[in-house]
Description:
8 strands
Amino acid sequence: MAILPIRHLPDEPGLRRKAKKVSRIDGSIQRLIDDMVVTMQEVGGVGLAAPQVGVSLRVIVLQMPEEEPIAIINPAIVRRSGEQEVTEGCLSVPGYFGEIARSESVTVKGQDRQGRAIRVKATGLMAEVLEHEIDHLNGVLYVDHVESVDKLHSVEELEGGQMEI
């Protein structure tokens, strides 16, 4: 397993492209998932999308505190409800965080790493992470959801540590 370099704005135009659907789950996809998990853990993130490591495929990984990592291939949000205000950061936009609105709960369908159909229902932080990572697959970054520059801050302004997704 390898730690992959994280792509950053504005240097990486690939972060703004819609990722391609995975048509076949083979050894290269398994390696990508493993490398993404190791990379996410190494940098202290809770989620990572393949475009963030330079791979334009619809693959995300996430790991909630105290839980095992999850990989979802070809994820799609099929239901959302409620709204929560969150403070969000991104490994591809280092040094900043913003206040944005995310859904309180989401239902996501996709495939697990063996290609089996899965459906994930999530609330709170996990719902936020799923929306954030699926946005990456569509070329959207959290900064696109920030209502105004007043809601975007540098990490130095954040008291008590930083939150990165």
